[in-house]
Amino acid sequence: MHYLRGKLAISSLLAQGDSPWSLALPAAVGLVVILLLAWFFLRRKKPQKPGPEPLPRVDVNQLGQHGPRSEPPVLECQGVPVRLAAVIVAAVGRQGPPPSQTILREVLEEIVPGLGAVLEQDRPQVVTWPAQLSPRGFAQAVFAHTPLPGEGGKGTIWCIAAGRCEHEGRHYAAALVLAAASPNSMTHFVLEQPHQWQSLLRVRQS
């Protein structure tokens, strides 16, 4: 009799709409859904961070094929008169902006006295790059992104000088794309110290 009464009581609870079983089942289903959604979102791959922006390239074919002007100031590379066709400049280090247009002339004057006047006369293409970790790495990147015609410029009018420079305590890397009046053997130059620029370049004022 007790067994029958217990069985009837359980049946009565299951039959009622507000029984513990009828309340527990939706809660269990909801919990399973929440767990499945959490598992799905946790398995989703995190969005990849965008890579570094590609470095601007310089096309020497768009810089003109003429050499330097005859009137001073005249820039010379290893004693050969050249035109300043393009300037690529960046800060050195993990952060830091490149020199602004307003102080670029001063930066070039630090490289070689009189180079600021050449900048104003030749009106080169000026390209700024994001900060570079080292001047040597900057130079190699410039050479890769500014391909010279022929065998790396050998036997053409083109050459590139790249290296480190300083201005008011700040460290920069600069590259000068140069065009001579006639083909020559000059190609690529890497200046690891600021003072080395003046052994390669000079500005003739007369």
Q: What are the key terms here?
A:
206 residues, alpha/beta, 27% strand
Explain what the structure shows:
This protein has 206 residues and is of the alpha/beta class. The protein folds into two domains: 2-43; 67-204, no CATH class. The protein is 37% helix and 27% strand. It has seven helices and seven strands; from the N terminus they run ααββααβααβββαβ. The chain has helices spanning 2-15, 20-43, 101-111, 115-122, 135-145, 149-152, 197-200; strands spanning 74-77, 80-91, 125-128, 156-167, 170-184, 188-191, 201-204. Strands 1, 2, 3, 4, 5, 6 and 7 form a seven-stranded mixed sheet that branches. α3 crosses α4. The chain is elongated, with a radius of gyration of 35 Å. Mean pLDDT is 84; it is low at 6-10.
SSE topology:
Elements: H1 2-15, H2 20-43, E1 74-77, E2 80-91, H3 101-111, H4 115-122, E3 125-128, H5 135-145, H6 149-152, E4 156-167, E5 170-184, E6 188-191, H7 197-200, E7 201-204
Parallel strand pairs: 2-3, 4-6
Antiparallel strand pairs: 1-2, 1-7, 2-5, 4-5
Helix pairs in contact: 3-4
What value does the average pLDDT take?
84
Count of the separate structural domains:
2
Helix content: 25-40%
Shape summary? elongated
Count the strands?
Answer: 7
Alpha-beta classification: alpha/beta
Radius of gyration, rounded?
A: 35 Å
State the gist of this model.
The chain is an alpha/beta fold and 206 residues long.
